Amino acid sequence: MHVTLQQLKLFHAVVKHGGFTRAANEMHLTQPAVSIQIKRLEDHVGLPLFEHVGRKMHMTLAGRELYAACSDILERLDAFVGTIDSLKGEVSGPLRISVVTTAKYFLPHLLGAFVQDYPKVNPFLTVTNRANVLQRLEDNLDDVVIMGQVPVGMKVEAIPFLENVLVVVAPPDHPFADGRLVTLAELAAERMLVREEGSGTRIAMGKLFEEHGLSPTFHMELGSSEAIKQGVMAKLGIAVLSLHSLHLELTMGRIAMLNVEGFPQRRPWYAVYNKGKRHSLAVTRFIDFLMEKGAESALNPIRENLER
Ligand code: PGA
User: How far is the CA of 308 from the centre of ligand 1 (A)?
Assistant: First the structure.
């Protein structure tokens, strides 16, 4: 079979992006050029790789098999390039990270510090919800993912490197914001804003209430920490959020941190990757960096709030 590496890369990109146009953008080609190469690949394989149901494009069985083979080949090639760089002693090349949404508040700071030390490393950062991060982990799309709740039932390594401090916040003129101790039962009776189903923050909150035999009815669901913060400032309710996401609002006095029984909750952030994954020198150095300097680099910007 005379398939070329470029055809395999294109096919991989089409599947990853779910379409020809975005794959063409990623590969700096035109959409017709991608279509032609995929057609040639199908000719080599001798079977269609995609089928169309309505306006949606799905992989055929042959397509799925080819995708699995492509993923193996491209990952192996990446690892090879990494090994060559390592043999040359060079810390360079791609560093693919995906993070759950709350981690977007600190991960760029860590990457900034890391890239200062290793300017030849080329980071790709995907920020998405937990469900997508889990899918990406399963599809082996990243070198490392950052999350607060390690998935059960998946063969992964999980390295804790930083504390996630969860606090309860309200508008500054809320009756609970006068510094008094609020019980969890009182909190459960309040109008609470929560993250989407599956969010790590929501899971942590759910566990805490459950441990205390409480089952609050949540007032409103919002899909990101950012939306929750706006909701709190708009007096829609009170919420549990990671301190990482609150630096500006606490500093500006737009949001108040409440004194609630059981809070702050301290949970680890983990760097997670599939067991047995071969890492380039750049990825290995990044994980070492997280363990050695991650906490300091991520906590510095929020130090004053931590000490409140
Ligand atoms: P999330 O992440 O609430 O943004 O999903 C927090 C976590 O994984 O603990």
Answer: 23
Ligand 1: list residues with CB < 6 Å.
100-102, 130, 147-149, 164, 195, 199-201, 204
Concatenating the DSSP letter of every residue in 224-240 gives SHHHHHHHHHTTS-EEE
Q: pLDDT tens per residue, the chain (308 residues)?
A: 789 999 999 999 999 888 899 999 988 999 999 999 999 999 999 999 999 888 888 999 999 999 999 998 998 888 788 788 778 888 988 899 999 999 999 999 999 999 999 999 999 999 999 999 999 999 888 999 999 999 998 999 999 999 999 999 999 999 999 989 999 999 999 999 999 988 989 999 999 999 999 988 888 999 889 999 999 999 999 999 999 999 899 999 999 999 999 999 999 999 999 998 888 889 999 999 999 987 777 776 666 666 66
Are 148 and 100 contacting, i.e. CB atoms less than 8 angstroms apart? Answer: yes
pTM (two decimals): 0.78
Alpha carbon 302 to chain centroid, angstroms: 20
Residue to probe by mutation, ligand 1, list 242, 243, 244, 269, most atoms within 8 Å of CB: 242
Atom of ligand 1 nearest to the CA of 130: 5
